Amino acid sequence: MPSVAMMAARSVRIPSYPSPRLYSPGTSFASRLHVNRFPASRLPFSRFQSSAPGTEGRGTHSGLSTSWSRGLFRSSQRIRRFFVKFQESQRWFSGKIKALLPQTNMGLGLATIFVGSAGNVVYAQYSNLVREKRLHSALAMGAVPDVKSTEELVERPDVTRAIEYILKPKRNYGSYDMIVGNHGTGKTTMVRHVAHQLEGVLYVDISPNSVSDKTFAEAFAKAFNWTPATSLVDMLLSYWGMGARETADDRALLVKVFKEFRHQAEVFEKNKGRPPVLVLDNVNRLAQRNPELLNILQDIAKDAADDRLFITVFVTSEGQAPIQMLGRSASSRLGEVVEIGDLNDDEAMDFLCNKRAIAESGARDIYGLVGGRVGLLARTANKLNSGLDFPVLAGVRASLLADVNKVLQEAGMEEEGESRRAGLQIASHILQHGRISRRDFYRISGSKQQGNELLSKNVFTTAPRSAWVVFDTKMMEIALRELVDNSGDPTTTVKLPETRK
Ligand SMILES: Nc1ncnc2c1ncn2[C@@H]1O[C@H](COP(=O)(O)OP(=O)(O)OP(=O)(O)O)[C@@H](O)[C@H]1O
Ligand SMILES: [Mg+2]
Description:
alpha/beta, Rossmann fold, five-stranded parallel β-sheet, three-stranded antiparallel β-sheet, 56% helix, disordered C terminus, binds adenosine-5'-triphosphate, binds magnesium ion, P-loop_NTPase, Orc1-like AAA ATPase domain-containing protein
């Protein structure tokens, strides 16, 4: 029984299918040896062929000795038999070749498949190499998109320093972090502006369209320059007309992208001596519409931090997302919490006067109306810069008040709303003391759940790990002051110990 090695060695020796040209009738070796081109009559000693039976040994050539002629005769007979046999076998061979001719097309086909498959192998190798480079470049310097008009940005050195600190983690840092702040405080702008100047940051924006498992995985893949690796097996299967294997489901796609991100994180860590950072912006959208996915991402962040692989930074507005995340056991691995608040007086005036060229008195009016929320300042400045003056401010005020009333309604604080009384009591306390402790806040709310409802609806706000609760916006403060003043309800004024202030 031949061994496998022997058989392999043999198979190597088996010549490949020759091209049909070699068998074409015009050029084949067989055709050159065609029987008609070698008639026996033309052969030497042909005269012996025509000898009549029984005349052997007599010869026709007189003068030749008998023994010589007998020897000559025997030799000629042998040669004759050889040529007869040759002609027979040549005829047989020609027949077989003719039968094989259709199969030579198969030979050509096999050769084509072989060359095509080899081409596929080369292509797969090349495209995977290009892909690897693309993935690598996702963590390069400036891979995070910068904000549009950087010259209009008001400088916030403290915020910049704090963000830079968490975006450049030390080797062996074993936590994930959070950047938190109310809507329009400038989180996205500042994170992108700082991250754009650093290497080792992958930024994923969770837009309203990327909250499902599938669309989030796609957004992540896009930010990471991820495309499926070119699978040689799938390529060859499809090339051979056998169809590719099944495509992965939504979660499987997420797993795949994270798997490769882990790999790139390892490479980065090895080269730079510190872990890279994955920034997930707007995770508050997940808390609202896909809380399960937020849990998964938090668990991934925890595991990656434990493995010292990469650091995740969750960017979120205050409210539901931090409440959800802090309520889980994975919060034990939460490290830095950077809170981004409103611009202070100087920063707000700098923004309005120097970046938006608004006169100081006008700037004061705007600041008095909207406070230091940079998003609102920018919106108001845009309207003012369009040429109008006082009516614009009145218009801004009216639109802000409309927004606030909508929020109050959603939080159940409208007239006769179930949270109206508790909400006004809390507001009254904040107006008196500037803030309220978390403990008193939840106590007046009636329950943890009702308190969280008021926080997640953006009437009041607090930061993770902060012991205090305040108004969500300046306009909310103005609106609630009016409501408290007009309520005439003595129970809205609650007496709480001053020491907690
Ligand atoms: N430092 C800054 N200087 C000038 N304008 C700024 C600055 N930061 C933010 N802005 C402007 O304020 C607006 C809101 O900013 P941004 O979108 O970054 O806030 P955000 O906190 O991410 O809001 P959200 O919670 O809704 O996502 C934008 O128009 C932005 O251009
Ligand atoms: Mg944002």
